[in-house]
Amino acid sequence: MRVSGSIRFILLSEIVFPILLLSFGVYHGVLQVLYRAGIIKANSVLGIEYYQGLTLHGVINAIVFTTIFIVAFGNGVVLYLLKKPLRPAVQWLSWLLMFGGTLMASWAMFSGKANVLYTFYPPLIAHWSFYVGAVLLVVGSLVPFFLDWIPNYLAWKRENTDKKMPLAVFGVFVNHILWFIMVIPVAIELIFQLIPLSLGIVKDINPLLARTLFWFFGHPVVYFWLLPAYVMLYTMLPKLISDKGKLYSDTAARLAFILFLMFSLPVGLHHQFTDPGISNSWKLIHAFFTFLVALPSMITAFTVAASMEYSAKREGGEGIFYWWTKLPYLRLEGDRWLFSYLFAGLILFFVGGITGIVNASYNVNLTVHNTAYVPGHFHTTVGGLSLLAFLGMSLYMLSKLKGVEVKFKGLAAVAPYIWVQGMFMFSYAMMVGGALEGFPRRTNTGLSYLNPDSPLYRPEWVGYAQLSVVGGFLLGLAFVFFLVSFLATLFAPNGQEPKLEFPIAQAYHDTPSPVLNNLKAWTLASVLLAVLSYLPALYDVTQRGIFYNSPAYHDKSPVPITPTETSQLDKEVKD
Amino acid sequence: MDRAERNATLLALFMLSFFFGLVVYAAKGLKIDLPTCITDVQPFKVGKLIRHAPDRYELHVVAKMWFFDMNEGQTRVEVPRGSVVDIYLTSADVVHGFHINDTNVNLMAVPGTVNYARVKFDRPGTYHVVCHEFCGIGHQDMAAQIVVK
Fold first, then answer.
1. What is the ipTM of this complex?
2. Separation of alpha carbons A248 and A229, rounded Å
3. Above 50 in pLDDT, residue A357?
4. Rounded CA gap, A555 and B140, in Å?
């Protein structure tokens, strides 16, 4: 369908702006493997410190890029499938909030006033503009859902009483419902703890409560990054394989989305397995739900594989194995190139899913917590399937909205496979070094542990760090390939007909599933389960497990910046 | 759902239950458990190594920007081989991490509260401790050693 005017501009900028920012994020990713291996032995390069670059890498790649892209993708899917116009006023409001918030937070990060990493970690404190920027970005990302997508769906439903909500819209809706629920606790942390502390309105906060509120958000957010990729796998991948391609089962796809809605939330404590102040019984319950939330991914593995087989067989593939040769691994006609992104993402996600079970496994987590294993794992999930699907879809939507073919399509199609190779090397190095040798994450190891002149030198980590450099180089190269194609397409003269369309496949098995489609009831159940699973933990971290609040600290000094006259602890010791 | 799909789902459920069963057995049967909520130990300000018996020690660690106070300001302590050490950990400022390599001791140090783990050192040698949580500009230098003789 045609799009024009301000809606086209908004969609285009919601795709281009995050990719441009992502370039900074990827640059800092490449720099980090160099720092960590001791190839760069310094606190900073070009005026950006290691931990500042790590903050930029985390916040830009994982929060800003993903959130703005997901809004653009949701806008696109809802517009294309429901055929109801988006409201320019709503879209502009969302655009201003998201872009304004991003600029505020970016200013704080680039000027070194927010070296607190994406996980915030109070009592380290950043400039207030970092937190306010984050709030604006999140609010802006919710505006279209409530003021555009839901009203448009209700209007569509009145005209199509006999139809189910289209699967892609269903996935987008589930994802944004989850997003809305998960940001509430982190908003409480920001508004009642971090922003007042950064402004000096309060002198101290409860850091354990802050951690618990953050991780209520911090794990479900990975499903917020994942579900749009699942929408693409279910509804678009089959069509990219064959024009007659079909999704194997519509019901299984909806079941997977509902399971994510139910079990994504009561799992956050698995990021706090080694925290004090929380009874390990509650940790075990969250470990149980974390195992349950692996189930929809396993269902997806089956459904997506079955859809690929069904679709490849429409192209003449036969037998148990021969259909594999009919998949368009590296094909340049039409939109087939997009298959590379989704397929390469699937390969990485296979590794990511399995290694995630290790993190989830309660006591096994003791051997990997905060070691390099953790980034090794999540770079195959968010840096694997999510990122590749988002990059591919960004390029795809850009070419459609410009009305031109993708430029340098060969580079674009080969980039994801280079990315997979680089990520295998990087993740292998990080995971093995982390799990077996205790190589830590989030550490500028080149200055100390991997510096032969330092008394802290740990030679057993050298090989892993060096392998991660080779991986990091390939990852950077793959991103450059993508960027060349993306920028060439962006600056190509506009084509005849800017439009918006997606290759949506029909389902092979499609049965009515009224229970699964009752989103209101599932949302209510999900909120109830999340609240119940968190009440005991919140009681622990506020009543039983913590003795004192903490004043704020800056990352450069061990002296608190919001000193209480005598800290509570000093007073107790004196008494 | 067709039959193949149902079987795949059931197989996935069975595998997950099996793994989770093993995890619970390791935690409650073999007693390899996670840190829990300590309500009877106040946060302390000074690191101490206390000897209760020839093979029983209590180690109070204060993590601070940017070193571990393991014993009156030292970052290196010695215990004899075969010792059982009760480790109490707190932080004097921001959040830190405490990971003893080659052991299951992997703790977060959160200010205002106390974390606990017990470890038995059967093998002689130097056990490296690193801070594995970002704690400011000096984070990469925050390390300690436990020497087992």
1. 0.96
2. 17
3. yes
4. 13
Query: Which tens digits make up the pLDDT trace of A26-73?
Result: 999 999 999 999 999 999 999 999 999 999 999 999 999 999 999 999
Q: Which of A99, A170, A217, A223 is flagged as catalytic?
A: A223
d(CA A319, CA A296): 27
Parallel, antiparallel, or unpaired: how do β-strands B76-79 and B143-148 relate? parallel
Q: How many CB atoms lie within 10 A of CB A159?
A: 10
Question: What is the distance between the alpha carbons of residues A335 and A533, in angstroms, rounded to a whole number?
Answer: 44
Active site includes A442?
Answer: yes
Q: How far apart are CA A302 and CA A353, in angstroms?
A: 13
* DSSP 8-state class, residue A124: B
pTM of structure: 0.95
pLDDT digits (tens, 9 = 90+) for A287-327: 999 999 999 999 999 999 999 999 999 999 888 889 999 99
Q: Which 31-60 residues of chain B touch chain A by CB within 8 A?
A: 32-39, 42-43, 45
Q: Cα separations (Å) of A538 from A274, A534, B43, B91?
A: 16, 6, 20, 21
Closest by Cα among B104, B95, B102, B84 to B132? B95
Element (H, E) at A506: strand A506-509
Interface size between A and B, measured as CB pairs under 8 A: 232
Does B115 sit within 8 Å of A275, measured CB to CB? yes
**Residue A247 phi, psi (nearest 5):** -70, 135
Q: How far apart are CA A83 and CA A176, in angstroms?
A: 20
Among A441, A479, A482, A534, the active-site one is A441
Q: Answer positive or negative: Cα dihedral of A298, A359, A135, A211.
A: positive
Burial of A494 (0-12, 13-18, 19+ CB in 10 A): exposed
Residue in A403, A421, A415, A422 with CA at minimum distance from that of residue A484: A415
Residue B106 pLDDT exceeds 50? yes
Q: Domain B48-148 belongs to what topology?
A: Immunoglobulin-like (2.60.40)
CB A264 within 8 A of CB A533: no
Residue A278, φ and ψ in degrees, nearest 5: -130, 125
Q: Look up residue A13 and give its two tokens.
A: 């900028």
| Residue that the structure tokens 């920027």 belong to | A133
Q: Which residues on B lie below 8 Å from A251 (Cβ)?
A: 1
Beta bridge partners of B96: B109
Alpha-carbon distances of A145 from A172, A175, B69, rounded to whole Å: 9, 10, 51
Measure in Å the smallest separation between the Cα of A162 and chain B Cα atoms: 21
Beta bridge partner(s), residue B109: B96
Query: Could you identify the residue written with the tokens 């099996």?
Result: B18
| Class of residue A492 by CB neighbours under 10 A (exposed 0-12, middle 13-18, buried 19+) | middle
Measured in Å, how far apart are chain A's first and last C-alpha atoms? 74
**Does A123 sit behind a cis peptide bond, omega within 30 degrees of 0 on the bond before it?**
yes
> Of A501, A299, A531, A527, nearest to A400 (Cα)?
A501
Residue A329 and residue A356: Cα distance in Å, rounded? 27
